[in-house]
Amino acid sequence: MPASTSPTLTQEHHNHTIIMNAASSNIALPAPSSVLDGTTYTLINTHATNTKALNRNYRLIGGGTSSTLPNSTSITIQRFGSDWVQLR
């Protein structure tokens, strides 16, 4: 799903890849309780300089949480219980 605007994800978008390439786009993740356990999203920020904001925190692999996606990076997150958890 290319996203030049700010997409709002739902259960209907489970297991999707979202590519963020516009300077002003951000990502609206659903509440973990509103999607099935195991739902995954791969988020790709292809913008060279802009960090993307997410409306919800996700647990980082190394500990802690984040609600951003740095420029030129990608992550895969999965709903696990009441959280979004980074898989890679």
How does this structure look, described?
With about 90 residues, the chain is mostly beta strands. It has one domain (about 1-85). The chain is about 0% helix and about 45% strand. The protein has strands spanning about 1-5, 15-20, 40-45, 50-60, 65-70, 75-80, 85. The strands form two sheets. The protein has a five-stranded mixed beta sheet with strand order 1-2-3-6-7, with no helix packed on it. Strands 4-5 form a two-stranded antiparallel ribbon. A hairpin with a 5-residue loop joins strand 4 and strand 5. The chain is globular.
Instruction: Note the run of SSEs as H and E.
Output: EEEEEEE
Q: Provide the residue-averaged pLDDT.
A: 83
Proportion in helices = under 10%
- In spatial order, strands of the major sheet run 1-2-3-6-7
Q: Unreliable stretches, pLDDT < 50, 5 or more residues?
A: none
Q: Name the assembly state.
A: single chain
Count of individual beta strands = 7
Relative strand content: 35-45%
The end-to-end distance, rounded to whole angstroms, is 19 Å
Count, helices: 0
Q: What class would the helix/strand composition place it in?
A: mainly beta
Rg (C-alpha, Å): 12 Å
Total tally of structural domains: 1
Overall, the morphology is globular
What about the largest sheet?
Answer: 5 strands, mixed
Detail the topology: elements first, then pairings.
Layout: E1 2-3, E2 16-20, E3 40-45, E4 52-59, E5 65-69, E6 73-80, E7 83-86
Parallel strand pairs: 1-2, 2-3
Antiparallel strand pairs: 3-6, 4-5, 6-7
Give structural attributes.
single chain, 88 residues, mainly beta, five-stranded mixed β-sheet, two-stranded antiparallel ribbon, 0% helix, globular
